[in-house]
Amino acid sequence: MQLLGQTETLLSRPIVWIGFAISAVICLLNGLSFLLPSLPEIPVKRFVVVGFGWFGGSQGFGHIVLEKPWNAIGRISVSFYPFVIGLGFLMPIDLLFSGWFFFLFYKAQLVISNALGLSKMPGFPYVDRQCFGAAVGLFLSLVLLGWQHFRSVIHQVLVQNLSDESKLYRTAILGLIIGFALLSLFSIRIGMSMWLVPIFFGIYFIVAIALTRMRAELGFPAHAMEHIQIDQMLIESFGSRGLGKSNLVALTLYRWFIRSFTSHPMPHQLEGLKMVTSNTRRRLYPALVGISAVASVTVFWVMLHLYYQHGAINFGGSSYGMKFGARVFNGLQRWLS
User: Does 307 share its domain with 232?
Assistant: First the structure.
């Protein structure tokens, strides 16, 4: 988003073009190295420097933190993706500071809790709850900061105003009502209790709105929110018996879009609305709706076709593609038993 307002100033600097050239050379060389293994590769991908990695159980310099309480620091990985480094120069300083501070603060919590013996408590220091609390706090701050605007929108929707802006707001509100009604109907049909529907989607949209705001302000290439597990929070709050089998099955079927929010469309759509001019923005709305409808059907068809054509165990060159479904439904089996 920074490029939109300062394109001439930013792109006129020679150092920026030197950075583009270095990044292009690294990406091109690594791409050729993948196709031609005889060529060297510049290591920029994620590797583990402390603890054990996800891939191959690799250990970096974990041997230097084997003693308590420092061994509780967990895994620390490092990567040098050029495009991520470039985005870092465009991010606001306060957001860069927040990213570093809270990462180090999280690691410090692990070490201190281990030293005090608190790590024996299940789930301590409750990182998932902290992440959800941060999302709620960000959502509430957005509501408070934009309260005057929201009041203006409500006023324009309720009064008999025939301006184009009022019509646009009415259309958006009507879409929200119809969309939520259809979501509720579908959720009830698959077994979710009527009382759980507003709670589930209320939490979901709180996280989604906070995520969209962060993505629009930071511009980071991925937005994984794996530490905010809505289904797990509901189960811990009400208990598996309190929710019942039908609700557990419904939450499992919704796991695909609440696992990490990486496929959430709102951040990408907001970026599109920001990039277009005010004159062409009106034409973008039907395009977003139409593309979303076509893409939803297309993606389901492509995934099913690839799995049945090549076999799920061979998808992506390994059985990695099967692990997500197995993890979800094995969890459902544990809840039901």
Answer: no
Residue type, 316: G
Domain of residue 309 covers: 294-337
Q: Are residues 190 and 219 in the same domain?
A: yes
Position 6 scores a pLDDT of 56
Q: How many domains does the chain have?
A: 2
pLDDT in tens, 2-37: 454 555 677 778 888 898 899 899 999 999 998 998
Q: Is a pLDDT exceeding 60 seen at residue 54? A: no
What pLDDT shows up at residue 51?
56
Asked if pLDDT for residue 220 goes beyond 80, the answer is no
Q: How far apart are CA 109 and CA 97, in angstroms?
A: 18
Classify residue 264 as left (phi > 0), alpha (psi -120 to 50) or beta.
beta
Whole-angstrom Cα distance, residue 225 to residue 236? 19
Q: Are residues 232 and 336 in the same domain?
A: no
What number is the average pLDDT over the span 187-194?
95
Residue where a domain terminates, one of 275, 307, 327: 275
CB 192 within 8 A of CB 228: no
Q: Are residues 163 and 199 in the same domain?
A: yes
Of 125, 313, 128, give the one whose Cα is nearest residue 237: 128
Classify residue 259: in a domain, yes or no: yes
